[in-house]
Give the backbone structure.
Amino acid sequence: MIQDPLAIAILLGSFALLILIRTPIAFALGFSSIFTALYSGIDLMIVAQRMVNGMESIPLIAIPFFILAGQIMSEGRIAERLVNLASLFVGRIRGGLAMINCVDSMFFGGISGSAVADVSSLGSVMIPAMERKGYTKSFAIALTVTTAVQAVLIPPSHNMIIYSMASGGTSIGRLFLAGALPGVLLGLSLMIASYIMAVKHDFPRENWPGWKKAVTIFIEGLLSVGVAVLIMGGIISGIFTASESAAVAVVYAFILTFFVYRDIPLIRFMKILKDSVNTVAMVFLLISTSTAFAWMMTSMQVPQAIAGWLLSLSSNKYVILTLVTIFLLFVGMVMDMAPAIIICTPILLPIMKSIGVDPVHFGVILMFNLGIGLCTPPVGNALFVGCAVGKAKIEEVMPSLIICYIPMIVILFIITFFPEIAMLLPNLVMK
């Protein structure tokens, strides 16, 4: 298909219109692809085939398992145990609960791989606890929401798997390792911001539980974090593929939740399965329709046009990276992560390669930008969940969110302009 301005206008215009009238994004992507196909004379069977092809990638098998493992551990008292574990390390610092919130998201991100799951599970524990200790509700919600971005960077992140598929098979193991250090740096930056706020507002420290209780907390917390260690250890060592490690994670999570901790009865497993199936169905519907949408754009040479336009503005690597970052921040504000990854990757990855950016490094840049979008209106799913859990309006939370955005943006540009940070672990461990 050649470049047809009217076809492009129909594709992008109908998508924008459907979003404005609050059509679910998966259906908006699908319908706009169908409208464009009808105008262009493309057989609708081809669109359907592209949708199916989008779900046929072998690495995507890992996603249902990661979602199920995260769901199992979210249903138990894992969040509470991780809070207690984090308290042992940072609770005695000024603003201890805020510090615990940041560290906790590092731990939970390595279990769930989902920012929204992070907010819903940890938020129900941390937001009320921070309020009782004298923290403002807006700051408690803002910190919980922004620290959850670590979940899309710290492995295992199922969004990294989607990027691997969209980029033509970038190593999942290298992507997982590349996201780890940026995720930790993001957490540390938010801890610094929290400490400054704690000193300014005289937020309290947490009490030491005593050595006997501390040992129990440490052991229980270590078992909870063990699922992330199992996943990464298996992939890096070559014992498991990403899909196999996800299946092993499910078994580990099942045994730990139902037979070791015994937090919930076994009968609840059917509800967990149902919730997981609902989530998986939503994710794969987004993947399938966004694949068709991305194919339609590629057929109309939209990526080439955008690449040509960007490269015409400047040949400087850092200028292009800045423009791409601004673009991705905007995309993250208006689109869910899965379709954004599938649509933006074929457009931007060739540009990144042309200026010498490694696909693994770009994967981290993409995740980071879109992760920030999760806590940014108007389509910030993590932000909406955080406000729902904390029983607050978005406008009430925005002043505190702006404070949290500052360290996030700083770390984002550091990671973007200094690839050595993201590439350190992949190059060190998986040469």
Observations:
- The first helix runs from residue 5 to 20.
- The mean pLDDT is 86.
- The chain has one domain: 43-429.
